[in-house]
Amino acid sequence: MNTASPDIRSRVDDAEWLQRVDLAACYRLVALFGWDDLIFTHISARVPGPEHHFLINPYGFMFEEITASSLIKVDLHGNKLDDTPHEINPAGFTIHSAVHAAREDATCVLHLHSVNGVAVSAQQEGVQPLSQHSIFVLSSLGYHDYEGVALVDDEKPRLVRDLGARRFLMLRNHGLLTVGRSVAEAFVAMYFFETSCRIQVAAMSGGQPLRHIGQSVIDGAQAQWEQVTRGTGGGLAWPALLRKLDRTNPGYRS
């Protein structure tokens, strides 16, 4: 199914188009990694510029179908700014608008219902310090209790409070959320978050006592994160991820 609006490239500037391409790639990479949940969950990105405008997926399409042209531009209240017959997920934008409004640095907000992420979100202790991946998550992790499907604005202040200035938020009994200064950063953060959960589920299934990494190591993980990513916020891995996507599902650029 073609979701694209073929004339949209001529109606947006280069900065918005590049953001559209990155966000469409992020949707398809989530599908490629097996983290999607049919048509549900969502990823949003701020449109570069002074206005508080954002891009999000058309509701009802698989993540592997998303293109740069099909993304819908909305304002902070979820009002569509593009001429499109497609709708957006109302629950999705409740979560995303809250984070975007509170965090100027939250250029991209990525929310998933991955199986491993939901499994760990249902565990009382949440993420445990069991792997190298987990120390980066634990150094910047908040928790938000489940309040039902996110449809009402009343939940926004509590969600914003629980995220604070952190990069990772575990939505209890629900899933995972990351924020990034770029689409690349939010995706790479989610890779570490989901992988930490996958490792934890596997380790706990082994039936042996688990070794925990010490708090002193976790305390130094934020500085190590910037060193490992060379301060690019995930941009170091992003070109390689796009090359991978170009080999497997290249239509996101249209």
Question: What do these coordinates show?
Answer:
- This protein is α+β, with helices and mostly antiparallel strands.
- The protein has one domain: 3-Layer(aba) Sandwich (L-fuculose-1-phosphate Aldolase), CATH 3.40.225.
- A seven-stranded mixed sheet has the order 3-2-1-4-7-6-5, with helices on both faces.
- A hairpin with a 3-residue loop joins β6 and β7.
- α2 crosses α5.
Structural class: alpha+beta
The strand order across the widest sheet is 3-2-1-4-7-6-5
Number of strands: 7
CATH architecture descriptor? 3-Layer(aba) Sandwich
Spell out the CATH superfamily: Class II aldolase/adducin N-terminal domain
Major β-sheet annotation: 7 strands, mixed
CATH topology call: L-fuculose-1-phosphate Aldolase
Percent of residues in helices: 25-40%
Low-confidence stretches: none
- H-E order: HEEEHEHHEHEEHHHH
Tell me the β content. Answer: 5-15%
Average pLDDT, all residues? 92
Which CATH first-tier class would you pick? Answer: Alpha Beta
Count of distinct structural domains: 1
- Please give the count of helices: 9
Oligomer: single chain
Rounded to the nearest angstrom, the distance between the terminal CA atoms is 13 Å
Radius of gyration, CA atoms, in whole angstroms: 18 Å
Please tell me what the overall shape is. Answer: globular
Write the layout of secondary structure elements.
Elements: H1 14-32, E1 42-46, E2 53-56, E3 72-75, H2 90-102, E4 108-112, H3 115-121, H4 132-138, E5 141-144, H5 156-163, E6 168-171, E7 175-180, H6 183-204, H7 215-219, H8 221-228, H9 238-248
Helix pairs in contact: 2-5, 3-6, 4-6
